Amino acid sequence: MHLTSIARLGALATALLGAALVSGTASAHQIWLQQDGKAASVYFGEFGDNLREASPGLLDKFSIKNVTWVSAKGAQPLQASKTAGAFILNGKVGAGESIIVEEDNYPSWEEKKDGKATRTMWIPAARLVADSKAQAPALTLDLVPTGKAGQFQVSYQGKPLAQAKVNAVVQSGWGKEAWSDAQGLVSFPLPWKGTYVLEVQHTDKTAGQRGTQAYDKAMFVTTLSLVQPQGVTPLPAGPALPPSKDHD
């Protein structure tokens, strides 16, 4: 085999590996919201695995410009400031309020199978609530409390989404999963006191265009963060996992 052919094969293998790593990291990760006493923050990684991506690193793939604080007074945009481990927002939620985030600038990737190239868009989003008060859907793929304890509703493009798998996890890694019914409703026991992050995913295989770039399918993953004020004392989080290496 000629050296040029070997070089081309090596370059192709590197490109395919890079695409697999980028797509694998994206599809396995989530963004979620948490807040301390002063402000809410956006994290990227895996809440239940105690993995938070960092900057420099995979956190730099995000811009986090589409952030909205929703209250009885209406919707108001918030600003996000990137730090080494999160995007800190200039706001937080109170009773009956919510913060929503949707990232629409994460880099797309191309996969090849049987000689056909498919370009995928990944749209992560997150919602933070202060209580179980019913919320109206606003994200493309949304997961909101209904006002009933432990009950939530999944929607896509404003309509209830049936047969969607929803995972609920706490900081120790304990988790449950359930499937939404015909009305998009899903219920969970919330036995532990503390923070829960619920996640739902949906893939839309309708081709479209974002800006100047066409894509073949869009993968959505949305989280809902909430705090259960009562329950069993939570188990501690496991050891923090190191941030992933950037694959670009």
Walk me through what this model shows:
The protein has 248 residues and is mostly beta strands. Helices cover 10% and strands 44% of the residues. The chain has one helix and 20 strands. The protein is globular. A hairpin with a 4-residue loop joins β6 and β7. Strands 4, 5, 8, 9, 10, 14, 15, 17 and 20 form a nine-stranded mixed β-sheet that branches. Strands 1, 2, 3, 6 and 7 form a five-stranded antiparallel β-sheet that branches. It has one domain.
Largest sheet: 9 strands, mixed
Task: Give the uncertain stretches in residue-range form.
Answer: 1-24
Q: Please write the string of helix (H) and strand (E) elements.
A: HEEEEEEEEEEEEEEEEEEEE
How many structural domains? Answer: 1
What distance separates the N and C termini?
Answer: 29 Å
Mean pLDDT across every amino acid position:
88
Strand content: 35-45%
Q: Indicate the overall shape.
A: globular
Helix fraction, binned, reads: 10-25%
The tally of helices reads 1
User: Which structural class fits the helix and strand makeup?
Assistant: mainly beta
Using only C-alpha atoms, the radius of gyration works out to 19 Å
Strand tally is 20
Q: How is this structure best summarized?
A:
The chain has one helix at residues 3-28, and strands at residues 30-35, 40-46, 51-52, 67-71, 74-77, 80-82, 87-89, 98-102, 109-113, 116-129, 141-145, 151-156, 159-160, 165-170, 175-179, 185-187, 194-204, 208-210, 213-215, 217-228. The chain is mainly β and 248 residues long.
